[in-house]
Amino acid sequence: MLDKLQVERERGITVKAQTAALRHKGYLLNLIDTPGHVDFSAEVSRSLAVCDGILLLVAANQGVQAQTIANFWLAFEKNIQMIPVINKIDLPGADVKAVETQLKNLFEFNADECLHISAKSGLNVEKILEAIIERVPPPSAEVDRPFRALIFDSQFDHFRGAIAYILVKEGSLKKGDKIRSFNNDKSYDVAEVGVMRPDMVKCTELRAGQVGYLVCNMRTVQEAKVGETLYSAATDKDTVQTFAEIKGVQPTVYAGLFPVETSDYENLKQAVERLCLNDPSVTVTPDSSKALGLGWRIGFLGVLHMEVFGARLSQEYDASVILCQPSVEFRALIKDNESIRKRRYEGLAEVRILDPSRFPDESDVEKFLEPMVKVRMIVPNEMMGTVNGLCSECRGERGEISSIDSTRLMILWRLPLAEIAVDFFERLKKLTSGYASFDYEPDGWQETKLVKLAILINGKEVSEFSQILPAAMARERAKTLVQRLKREIPRQQFEVTIKGGSRCPGFEKKMGGAEQTRSAGFFRAKFRF
Ligand SMILES: Nc1nc2c(ncn2[C@@H]2O[C@H](COP(=O)(O)OP(=O)(O)OP(=O)(O)O)[C@@H](O)[C@H]2O)c(=O)[nH]1
């Protein structure tokens, strides 16, 4: 019901938090359904900023997943009331007792706190609503004060402009009211308010404690930014209390984004801005390339997030884009030499490496650093060896292992982000027949050796296609690239060379003939790696 986006329906996953208001026995409950995948964790943290309670859902046949633990701690730190719910008890593989043990061992939930339901058959679902009413405190809301609300999500509508989803903390709001935004400092006449049921339904008034949507002719997407405070135009700005900042999540992978046709740049720019309104966890920096023209370097929370962003641009905005190979951010500590630092690196001692075309000269570099992550996996006992094997292959350092019940282990590893950014989860799932779950968080930086794999087309480097990666990963990656290029490039037209730098000596592979019938449009359409 709540997965409305085409990409969600196609992939069967939630990528966007959705709100639904429902009435039950005289109470108004506002629910937010959040995604489960680690790439969309920003949706969870943002939703927690406006919730008074959470339902911690665990499937009876799968048990606690790695992301359940991450989400538990997010809610715990905010001191939000939690209701543990064990779902899918209708399945033959359901083991309610085992899940109860896990919930006790990991989070100290007692068995009598846990609800046992089947969302499919509807069994005991009613009890969830009762539990929300009994256990979750009502929102603190003062209806008699002047209007004040927080924008916790927003979306661009092709017909009505920016639509803000708000939590009304104080007062009330109706059509015709005059309001102001605190950070943007603009004033608006309210054109429409309503609630999500889960589709937008107009209503006459939103009152303190409610969440709903607001249309007020916000013309640019910046005006409906998440975290903005709205208040009654009659209130003196100096007396307005703003909401605590909704902390952003740092991107983990970056990729170049360019229009297929350079003439589409302006349209794509608008589409990117509008989509970012609904997905504020991406970071956007303008970028330009000799081969691909004007575009952006975009930061995502993972490769799935990147793929979903690309799919949404094409499905919701009809945009054709080139997304280059994703890469993590590396850093270089520049040698302690004032004149080199000044001349070449804007005086910086440490530079960020996000773009192969701006790879520092190796002789200027004291050391390279790569980002590390703490990975948490939950796996069946008998698969420990397999999982540990995979992690050591990925240059990992083993951390603690603990059992969460008699059949499952929680395994911690410290791994380079570059190793897990692309296909680690797929490999883990394959090796464990889908039984392992995985979650990670940033864990500092570590010295590394970096290699630039340069891709030359007809003898010229196309830096957007070139890649920077740890030397340990270079040979494997180069081999995959060779295979891919063999499939994708018409050899009579292009000669492609992949060159390893000094740290990947001798790696040079040429393919195709050298005929100079270069067609930029073709390049753009063809190179989507
Ligand atoms: N047998 C059974 N299947 C269920 C039950 N609840 C959900 N499912 C199935 O489990 C699958 C996943 O359901 P979703 O609701 O998409 O799961 P989710 O946890 O929201 O996943 P994300 O959308 O990625 O966050 C679907 O195929 C559902 O039909 C249940 O109580 N019993």
From TrEMBL:
TM segment ranges: none
Q: Which residues form the signal peptide?
A: none
Instruction: Please report the record's description of how this protein sits within the membrane.
Output: Peripheral membrane protein
Which reaction does this chain catalyze?
Answer: GTP + H2O = GDP + phosphate + H(+)
* Cell compartment(s), UniProt: Mitochondrion inner membrane
Instruction: Please provide, alphabetically and separated by semicolons, the GO molecular function terms listed in this UniProt record.
Output: GTP binding; GTPase activity; mitochondrial ribosome binding
Where along the chain is GTP bound?
33-37, 87-90
Domain (Tr-type G) ranges? 1-140
Which Pfam family, any one, appears in the UniProt record?
Answer: EFG_C
Q: EC number(s) for this protein?
A: 3.6.5.n1
Mainly localized where? mitochondrion
Keywords from UniProt, A to Z, are: GTP-binding, Hydrolase, Membrane, Mitochondrion, Mitochondrion inner membrane, Nucleotide-binding, Protein biosynthesis
Quote the cellular component terms of the Gene Ontology held in the record. Answer: mitochondrial inner membrane; mitochondrial matrix
Q: Name one GO biological process term.
A: positive regulation of translation
HAMAP family, from UniProt?
Answer: LepA
Role of this protein: Promotes mitochondrial protein synthesis. May act as a fidelity factor of the translation reaction, by catalyzing a one-codon backward translocation of tRNAs on improperly translocated ribosomes. Binds to mitochondrial ribosomes in a GTP-dependent manner.
Protein name (Swiss-Prot/TrEMBL):
Translation factor GUF1 homolog, mitochondrial
